[in-house]
Every structure is written in structure tokens, then in C-alpha cells.
Amino acid sequence: MNIREFSHNLEKLYQAMSAEFSAYQSTTGLACLAGCGRCCLNPEIEASVFELIPMALAIYDEGTLDQWVERLQSTRRETCEAFVPGEKPGEGKCGRYHQRPSVCRMFGVAGHHKKEDQVTLSICRYIKEYYALTEAQLVSDNSDIPMMVEWSYRMTALDPNLMQDRRPINEALLGALQKVSLYTAYQEE
Ligand code: SF4
Ligand code: SF4
Predict the structure, then answer these.
(1) Pick from 4, 15, 3, 78: nearest CA to 42
(2) How confident is the model at residue 134 (pLDDT cuts 50, 70, 90)?
(3) Which residue's CA is the nearest one to ligand 1's atom 8?
(4) Where along the chain do its domains lie?
(5) What pLDDT is stored for residue 61 in this prediction?
(6) What percent of the chain has pLDDT over 70?
(7) What per-residue confidence (pLDDT) applies to 144?
(8) By C-alpha distance, which of 57, 46, 41 is closest to 162?
(9) What is the helix, strand, coil percentage profile of the chain, to 5?
(10) Quick one: which of 5, 1, 81 has its CA closest to 47?
(11) Ligand nearest to the CA of 90
């Protein structure tokens, strides 16, 4: 496995994924709330080690891999270590936005199949409350809704490891950093 090629291909997929999900939020007007970072504070966010290879590689290239490993091992924080809190509770932003994993790109407004031909919108509760959406408004036959399952298939097609062995996001990042450290020691010395 060439880790840089893998990362490059995954980043291209991530960009296409973000473009589709963001475009949908934009065209429907269901934008995230200004300054909001509540979803990043959920201690149950999971990702696979392989999904975090682009983030780990960027950290390695910045020369801060050892500091990140130490930080992840010592703080053992329940919420994502990449989160940068804002001034008010619930506010903040992703400190590694361009390398965030798939769950962070699909969360917010996404579709899943309920019945044949019917798609249900899975919407963050803050967006749902803010725009006062009813349950009926969440069901649609609109083919433009970005579907989580389709993107999961595309991830699996790129590499089956991407959707397997999901674990808490900080553990996944630690695993990715350890992989990058190992691969780069062999491939780039
Ligand atoms: S990677 Fe970024 S977007 Fe994802 S949970 Fe962490 S801080 Fe939030
Ligand atoms: S998805 Fe919801 S919780 Fe996350 S930033 Fe957007 S509005 Fe906030």
C-alpha cells in the first residue's frame, strides 16, 4: 500500500462527498447554525483508522505527529481532540476541517431509505428545531438528497477497510498516526 496515493484518493472522495452534502444544505436553506459545533462534542462519534489517514498524514507532514500521539494518549478526552471550542458553550469549529472523516461530512442533513422510493431526511436536531421542520417534511421522493448509504458504498469500493472496525474518533486518530509513523519509516526513509 502506498499511503500517500491512498490518502490522495480518499481526499478526492471526501471533497466530492462534502460538495454534495454542502450543496444540498445550501439549496434547501437548511444550513447549520452560525458558530455551532455541538455535533463535534458528541462523545459517540466513531470513525475507522483508515478514514483518518489523511489527517494523520497532514499532522506528520507538519512535524507534530509525536505531540499528537502524546496528547491523545495523555488526555484520553471523550470528545474529539481536533475540536477547537468557541467562546460560548456549544460553539466551536473543527481544527482539522479539510481532513475530517466521513461521519463529519455527512452529519447535518442526509437521506436514508425508509420505504421503497421514499427517502427520509436524517437531520441534526438543532437544524430541525431551528427551521421548525415537521415529520412530514422529512419524507421525500426527491432524488437530489445525498444518501449516506451510497457514499458508504463508494468508500467501501475505494477500500473495504474504510467502513470497518469503527472506534471512538480519538482512538481512530491515534491508530492512524501509528500507522503513518510505521509506513513512513519504511516507505520514505
Ligand atoms: S474531526 Fe472535526 S468535524 Fe469531526 S468531530 Fe472532530 S472536530 Fe468535529
Ligand atoms: S450539524 Fe447541527 S450540531 Fe452540527 S454544526 Fe450543524 S447545526 Fe450544529
Answers:
(1) 78
(2) confident
(3) 40
(4) 3-28+38-187
(5) 97
(6) 95
(7) 80
(8) 46
(9) 55, 15, 30
(10) 81
(11) 2
